[in-house]
Amino acid sequence: MKTIQIDDDLYQFIAANTQKIGESASDILRRLLWENTQSKQVEVTLQPSAATTSKVSSSKNDNVSEINNQPVVDSSVKVDAPDTKVETAPLVEEPETQDDHVLEPSICKDTTVFNLLNKEEVATQKGAVGRFLFILGKLHRAHNSNFNNVLEIKGRERNYFGLSASELEASGSSIKPKQIPNSDYWVTTNNNTPRKKFIIFEVAKHLGYEETDAEKLRELI
């Protein structure tokens, strides 16, 4: 280790740059000199050469020339885009479904119920209730345009026909309403067989049948 003599102002400068307790004067000088050396090396490395500077200047001038030669676009001018039509697939409507039945197509107005049923077909129905509902279904098909006339047929304490089960149930108790096949109408079925025959007879009369034909329908029950 060498001993050197320095002026007081240099000593004060070295002491002022102390960063930690116990740091020696050699460490302080070494750090200061090293930082100064690195700073100079960075400055030398980053300093561009004359050739590079000329290339950059030339490139900038070329870019300016290209920019100057390009047409100026007026931002206030609006360019309309061509109209485009978006074709959408047509909506496919789903067929409506009915809950409990499918309405049959209407038939010729001159058709009578006798064109739609026969005794053998009636006989295959299950019991008096089955035959009763089957005949009413055929009467509705033959006369669906004026079948609402049957709503006028009523008993002393209950309605025989309605447009819903709840409507019939509201008019009496234990009436066992059932829907007439392929129609929107409901009928009470908790009647004895003579009462069912009477209802069929009255339905035929309300739909315009003669008494003789109404009797034929009644006897099919």
Major beta sheet summary: 3 strands, antiparallel
**From N to C, what is the helix and strand string?**
HHHHHEHEEHH
Based on Cα principal axes, name the global outline.
Answer: rod-shaped
Helix tally? 8
- The proportion of residues in beta strands is under 5%
DSSP, total strands: 3
Q: Alpha-carbon distance between the termini?
A: 138 Å
Mean pLDDT figure: 76
Structural category: mainly alpha
Oligomer: single chain
- Report helical residue fraction: 40-55%
Radius of gyration: 54 Å
Keywords:
3 strands, mainly alpha, 8 helices, three-stranded antiparallel β-sheet, about 220 residues, rod-shaped
Descriptive notes:
With 221 residues, the protein is mainly alpha-helical. It is built from eight helices and three strands. It has helices at residues 8-16, 25-46, 50-69, 119-123, 127-142, 165-169, 193-206, 211-218; strands spanning 161-162, 177-179, 186-188. The protein has a three-stranded antiparallel sheet with strand order 1-3-2. The longest helix is centred in the N-terminal third of the chain and has 22 residues, at 25-46. The protein starts with 7 loop residues before the first helix and ends with a helix. The model is unreliable at 51-61, 63-68, 71-79 and 95-106 (pLDDT under 50).
